[in-house]
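Our consortium's second objective concerns turning raw sequence data into structural hypotheses that experimental partners can test. To show how far this objective has progressed, the report includes one record in full. It was chosen at random from the queue rather than selected for favorable results. The single chain below, 121 residues long, was entered without modification.
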Amino acid sequence: MEERDSIIRKILDELYIKFDPKNLYQLTLDQYGDFLISTFEYINLYKDKYHLSKKDFVEFNKLIHHKYNYDEYEDNCWERVAFFMDELIFCFSTRPPYFFDSNFEDFKNKIRKDMTKGNGL
């Protein structure tokens, strides 16, 4: 089993790539949905190896915010990141059966339905 620090580093490295504002700020709603789902899938790879806490995600949020200057972008890019980090905190720091103990296809459909309604985006 991988150690906690190694898992945290892998997840943070992936989040740095995904939350680079150069890639994030021009996403369409459909692309943003794919982005959300792929990020959830990536982090989900580690759910049985290390239970992420709210503290982990708060730290991710701080590190990402300090890495990039989101103020240079006009489309509320940081608000998107903050919304998504809130979703990550709920889904991954809340013990089952809230999230991935259900069918992943059902989850993807729910995300797409919520996004269609403009839920937070």
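The partners drew two points from this record. The CA atoms of residues 80 and 121 lie 7 Å apart. The chain has one domain: 4-116. Both points have been shared with the crystallography group to help prioritize constructs.
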